[in-house]
Amino acid sequence: MTTAQLIDQIKIKKSFLAVGLDVDLNKIPKHFLDLEDPIFEFNKAIIDATHDLCVSYKPNTAFFEAYGIKGWMSLQKTINYINENYPDIFTIADAKRGDIGNTSSMYAKAFFEDLNFDSVTVAPYMGKDSVEPFLAFENKHTIMLALTSNEGAFDFQTLNVEGTRGEAKELYKQVLETSKTWKNSENLMYVVGATKAEYFTEIRKIVPDSFILVPGVGAQGGSLSEVCKYGLNDNVGLLINSSRAIIYASNGTDFAEAARAEALKMQQEMETILSLKFKV
Fold it and tell me: Binning pLDDT at 50, 70 and 90, where does residue 166 land?
C-alpha cells in the first residue's frame, strides 16, 4: 500500500485508528477455546466488527509466536483474511525486528513477501545496515522505534548525546535525524508513544511529513487529543493504536459488539478532531 492510498483511507473513513490484535487465550471469551483455531476465530470476529471504523490492523507477533507453529499459522490466516476481505486496510506486523543485514533481509522477506504485510516495526539500535534491507521493498513501510511509551524508554532514548555538529541532543532526536539519511528513507514511519505527547512538537521539527504510529492511547493512559494537538500534520500523519481497550472491551458473548462500540467511540473522536483541524 502506498502512503497516498493510506491517506485516502483516512479521508474516506474519517479515522486514523489502528486496532492492535494482541490475542491472549486467557482473556478471550471462553467459548473460543473449544474451536480448532481460537486465535484466528477471535481475530476474524474483531476484524468483521471494526473494519469500517479503522484504517489499520496491527498484530503483535509475540502473541502468536508464543503458541508455536499453531500461533504462526493463526497469524498467517489472520493477515490472509484481512488482505482478501478488506484489502484497503493498512497492515502492520508488530515484530520489532532488527539484526545484521543478511538477517534483516530474511526478516523483511518473511513479513513483506511471505505474509504480505504492508509494514513491519523495527528496532534501530544496530544502525543503518539493520534497517535498510526493510526499506528496499517497494510500497512497503518500515516503522522504526523512536520514542516509546514504556517506563524504560528513559534508560537510553532521552539521554543527551553529542550530535553531528558537536551539540548535545537527546538520543531519540539523533536517531530520527540519522534515519533520514538512509537509502529509501521515504519508506520510513516512526513509533512514538502516546504517553510522550509533549515530545511531538520537537519530533515534528525533524520528521514533519512522516507517519507516526502511536501506541499507548487507552489502556496505557495516553491522551488522543494531546497527541493530535502536537502530532498532526497536513496529511494527518498519525496512526493511533488501541489494543486492549478495544479487543477486550468485553469477555462475554457480546465481545464483538463491545469492541465495535469502543472503536466507534475513538473513530467519532477522531472525526471531530479532523473536522476542527481541516475544517471539513
Answer: confident
